[in-house]
């Protein structure tokens, strides 16, 4: 099914002989390109070898040699594009090997469709459009979302959308359709969101007379489906959003769902199960594959302010069947978010007040990252601009080029809907009828810093609001122009009044901006022109698109564009990890830092001194010659001077009025944040006009991967490794040549033998020690002498023993062989290791318990039964006494028997808090480099593909090593 505008465009194209010459088509002017010169001929190209390795063990994940890229593209960008977006089997002639092939595959498809559907006035306009789009992609001015690069121009279905919203009604057929549709979307690598509020509650009756199951029960099936599809071939967790309205009778159960599961995770962890993210036993808990959000109304928020009761309504007739204390429920939401980061909030009335299509239906849900909010059973394709490409050398902004670039991008995004395929027919029908687009940007944080503006300041928010308004105003103006060429979107006629009302709201919000400084003044002036001309034109001929903009995480595509910051986020930190051509890496200070210092008027010698200080310390505190009033310019998301949570909320609020959808961003809060502080952030999100808000309190989740930097606990006096203190752009690499010396055991040595049983398989473990009690020899017996198994175990024992005698630390063997899975596996007869995933898992857990000190074992998550019991009792005692265990002094003693000493609170926390401080000698991402510098571990997962620690990108995480994301961007 196609919209009226598409049909009209196709008819005009056919009337002109099908050559793409359409009456009233677009005239395209050159902005970035030169007539007669192809964009590829303006850049210098080189051949590179892309070899992706797991930096932890050196294994090769991917290899393609001789790929072609511009010399200006970073190693990281080239690696990610080659591994993620090049099509064809590696090693075959069909495999793409040049960036030219990738860009041509996409741009030529867009050009051909634009000509076919009547977008261009002449073939020359189509060619200019082709060249301009190519130039911008080649020079990293913008990027389409990942599905475009995956699918467009290939034999695969031409899916261009990354964001999907589904629907489910109060019937078993609809619920089962939801499972199926969600599975199809997950299989394609995208994410979806759904509101379950139409499903009757567990407090209502079925027509048969029984009691309904309620939406939370059906969430179990969907969660299991998502986990199964993920484990069936995907390299990341399924991305999904589940939403429930605040007036649903099951709202309290929904709010506490994931918090209860987090309690289960803690209990299982204390019993010795592997509950880290991706661990062997984490699959035993439920609801872990979805983000949960509560859809709150203005009525509920006013009841919260007044401290009054709020009615929960039945789904069948809308009548109030129960009342609750609004403040108690809101506090419960904040408490659950404090415990496990879920649920987030979506502000229903604010969302629908900015809805351009209310006559078609309300907005009830969002995509997993909460930036796309539109009709049920719809989708949105995204593209993001690299804002740093528009920053002039003198600190000005390329306003005219920005406007023209938005025109090109919106045109291309709309063309893609003409030929796109969709996972379900319902989604295809809605998307073609309403043509939702999601233009956005990345590198805002870098732009503000380079301009000498603090992220958390009126000046910073001023510029962000002005740029966002200009982007959205231009997008809608171009959409109105497209409506005059190929027709308004099909659903416009019935929603014309509402759409025009929302356009006036955007324009009125633009008028409220009070620009500070000449740059912001110029941008706001141009934005005002765009809103005025676009609204005037749209009132006459409508708009081509129901929605035009979102602010997405820009994870993988941000790396493709070599962006320092993603989406609306500030800089992660002032130091950065950079890969080098030919292998290796180096630590550098972000290039926005010296640019910011020059913008602030510092002379070159002071710039060098400050940069050197940052390279050594990771922050600007006490940097030589830097004025204290300029410290805020260099505040980041993490580190010594981190931006306060309310600063993030205020930035979101400043740009929200200029976005059709919403903003993908999680407000990080420190581990010491209280439930009351989270409650206040939630309240301020509503007061400041946000559409959605999610918070994450550091270390609130148990199911997190262990950090590679999880070593000895650091204090303020912990020395920084020499690699960190090297000068800016100096390679972090130190080669030490040595020859190991074998330390043999004496002829007479002490030893002990342990009999064991794993799932009924019996064996004996004999461990011999050096005179100083260090383990030096292991023997294993599990079968009759002369059998294959006995021979293998003998050989394995000799290999381990020789390794120990040559100085391989026992903890290295423990970390390698624990959690290894093979049969026999199951229950053991050892009270300290109740479950084992294999014989190897049991053996090395037993050796760790017998020969490693408590501090080392705590970092590996291995405890005796007494230690686990003592930890649980200590936590319970602290909670009963009203003490905040994570916030207690590290020196406060807790009675945990270790055989030699009393363990402090900091040590007792080690098994639950992946915050480690002694960083590894080498690092694999900017997040790990930051840990190395600051001595604090970041709350970020490890990449499922390459093992590198990921970094925050909006509501998701992105891997700097291979470009994988944890969400749908």
Structure description:
This protein is of the alpha+beta class and 969 residues long. Among the domains are: 163-365, Alpha-Beta Barrel (Anaerobic Ribonucleotide-triphosphate Reductase Large Chain), CATH 3.20.70.20; 751-908, no CATH class. Helix content is 40%, strand content 15%. The protein has 29 helices and 28 strands. Strands 3, 4, 5, 6, 7, 10, 13, 14, 17 and 18 form a ten-stranded mixed β-sheet that branches. A three-stranded antiparallel β-sheet has the order 15-16-19. A three-stranded antiparallel β-sheet has the order 20-21-22. β15 and β16 (585-589) form a beta hairpin. It is globular.
Q: Briefly, what is this?
A:
Helices cover 40% and strands 15% of the residues. By secondary structure, the chain is an alpha+beta fold. The longest helix has 29 residues, at 458-486.
List keywords for this structure.
3-stranded antiparallel sheet, 969 residues, oxidoreductase, alpha+beta, 29 helices, RNR_lg_C, nucleotide-binding, Anaerobic Ribonucleotide-triphosphate Reductase Large Chain
């Amino acid at each position: 099914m196609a919209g009226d505008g598409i049909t009209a465009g196709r008819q005009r194209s056919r009337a002109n002989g099908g050559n793409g010459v359409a009456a009233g088509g677009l005239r395209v002017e050159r902005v970035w390109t030169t007539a007669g010169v192809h964009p590829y001929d303006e850049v210098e190209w080189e051949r590179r070898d892309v070899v992706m390795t797991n930096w932890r063990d050196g294994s090769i994940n991917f290899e393609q040699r001789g790929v072609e890229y511009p010399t200006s593209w970073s190693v990281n960008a080239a690696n990610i594009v080659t591994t993620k977006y090049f099509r064809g089997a590696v090693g075959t002639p069909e495999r793409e090997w040049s960036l030219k092939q990738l860009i041509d595959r996409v741009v030529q498809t867009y050009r051909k469709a634009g000509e076919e559907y009547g977008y261009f006035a002449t073939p020359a306009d189509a060619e200019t459009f082709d060249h301009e789009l190519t130039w911008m992609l080649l020079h990293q001015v913008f990027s389409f979302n990942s599905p475009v690069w995956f699918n467009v121009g290939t034999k695969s279905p031409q899916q261009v959308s990354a964001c999907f919203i589904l629907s489910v009604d109060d019937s078993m057929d609809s619920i089962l359709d939801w499972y199926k549709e969600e599975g199809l979307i997950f299989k394609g690598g995208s994410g979806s969101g759904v509101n379950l509020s139409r499903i009757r509650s567990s407090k209502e009756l079925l027509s048969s007379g029984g009691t309904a199951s309620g939406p939370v029960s059906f969430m179990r099936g969907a969660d299991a489906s998502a986990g199964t599809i993920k484990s069936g071939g995907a390299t990341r967790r399924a991305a999904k959003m589940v939403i429930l309205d605040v007036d649903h009778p099951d709202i309290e159960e929904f709010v506490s769902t994931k918090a209860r599961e987090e309690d289960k995770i803690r209990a299982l962890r204390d019993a010795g199960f592997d509950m880290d993210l991706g661990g062997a036993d984490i699959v035993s808990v439920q609801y872990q594959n979805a983000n949960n959000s509560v859809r709150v109304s203005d009525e509920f928020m006013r009841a919260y302010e007044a401290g009054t009761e709020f009615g929960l309504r039945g789904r069948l007739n809308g009548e109030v069947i129960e009342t609750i204390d609004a403040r108690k429920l809101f506090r419960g939401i904040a408490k659950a978010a404090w415990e496990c980061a879920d649920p987030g909030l979506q502000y229903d009335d604010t969302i629908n007040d900015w809805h351009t299509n209310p006559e078609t239906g309300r907005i009830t849900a969002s995509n997993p990252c909460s930036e796309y909010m539109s009709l049920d059973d719809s989708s949105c394709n995204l593209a993001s601009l690299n804002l740093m490409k528009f920053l002039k050398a003198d600190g000005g902004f390329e306003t005219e080029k920005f406007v023209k670039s938005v025109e090109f991008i919106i045109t291309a995004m709309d063309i893609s809907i003409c030929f796109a395929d969709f996972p379900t027919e319902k989604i295809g029908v809605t998307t073609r009828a309403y043509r939702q687009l999601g233009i956005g940007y990345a590198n805002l944080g870098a732009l503000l810093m380079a301009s000498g503006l603090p992220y958390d300041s009126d000046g910073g928010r001023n510029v962000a609001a002005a740029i966002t308004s200009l982007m959205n105003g231009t997008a809608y103006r171009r959409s109105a122009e497209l409506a005059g060429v190929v027709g308004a979107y099909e659903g416009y006629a019935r929603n014309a009044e509402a759409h025009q009302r929302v356009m006036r709201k955007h324009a009125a919000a633009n008028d409220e901006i009070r620009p500070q400084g000449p740059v912001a003044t110029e941008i706001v002036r141009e934005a005002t022109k765009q809103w005025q001309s676009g609204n005037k034109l749209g009132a006459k001929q409508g708009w081509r698109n129901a929605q035009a903009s979102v602010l997405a995480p820009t994870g993988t595509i941000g790396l493709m564009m070599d962006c320092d910051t993603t989406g609306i986020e500030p800089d992660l930190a002032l130091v950065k990890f950079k890969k080098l051509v030919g292998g290796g890496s180096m630590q550098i200070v972000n290039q926005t830092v010296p640019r910011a210092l020059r913008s602030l008027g510092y002379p070159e010698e002071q710039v060098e001194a400050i940069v050197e200080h940052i390279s050594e310390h990771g922050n600007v505190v006490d940097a030589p010659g830097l004025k204290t009033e300029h410290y805020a310019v260099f505040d980041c998301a993490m580190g010594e001077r981190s931006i306060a949570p309310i600063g993030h909320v205020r930035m979101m609020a400043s740009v929200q009025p200029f976005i059709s959808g919403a903003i993908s961003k999680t407000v990080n809060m420190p581990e010491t944040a209280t439930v009351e502080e989270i409650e206040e952030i939630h309240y301020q999100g509503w007061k400041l006009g946000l559409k959605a808000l999610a918070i994450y309190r550091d270390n609130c989740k148990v199911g997190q991967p262990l950090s590679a930097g999880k070593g000895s606990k650091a204090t303020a006096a912990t020395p920084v490794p020499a690699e960190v203190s090297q000068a800016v752009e100096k390679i972090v690499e130190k080669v030490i040549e040595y020859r190991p010396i074998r330390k043999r055991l004496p002829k007479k040595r002490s030893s002990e033998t342990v009999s064991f049983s794993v799932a009924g398989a019996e064996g004996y473990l004999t461990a011999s020690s050096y005179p100083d009690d260090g383990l030096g020899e292991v023997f294993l017996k599990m079968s009759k002498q002369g059998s294959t198994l006995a021979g293998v175990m003998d050989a394995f024992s000799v290999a381990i023993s020789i390794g120990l005698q040559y100085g391989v630390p026992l903890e290295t063997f423990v970390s390698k062989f624990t959690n290894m899975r093979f049969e026999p596996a199951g229950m053991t007869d050892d009270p300290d290791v109740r479950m084992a995933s294999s014989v190897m898992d049991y053996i090395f857990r037993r050796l760790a318990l017998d020969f490693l000190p408590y501090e080392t074992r705590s970092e590996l998550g291995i405890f005796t039964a007494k230690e686990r019991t003592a930890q649980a009792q200590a936590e319970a005692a602290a909670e009963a006494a009203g003490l905040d265990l994570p916030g207690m002094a590290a020196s406060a003693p807790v009675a945990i028997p270790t055989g030699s000493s009393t363990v402090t609170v900091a040590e007792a926390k080690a098994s639950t808090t992946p915050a480690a401080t002694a960083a590894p000698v080498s690092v694999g991402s900017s997040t790990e480099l930051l840990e190395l510098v600051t001595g604090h571990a970041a709350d970020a997962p490890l990449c499922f593909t390459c093992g590198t620690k990921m970094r925050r990108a909006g509501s998701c995480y992105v891997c700097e090593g291979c470009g994988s994301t944890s969400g749908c961007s």
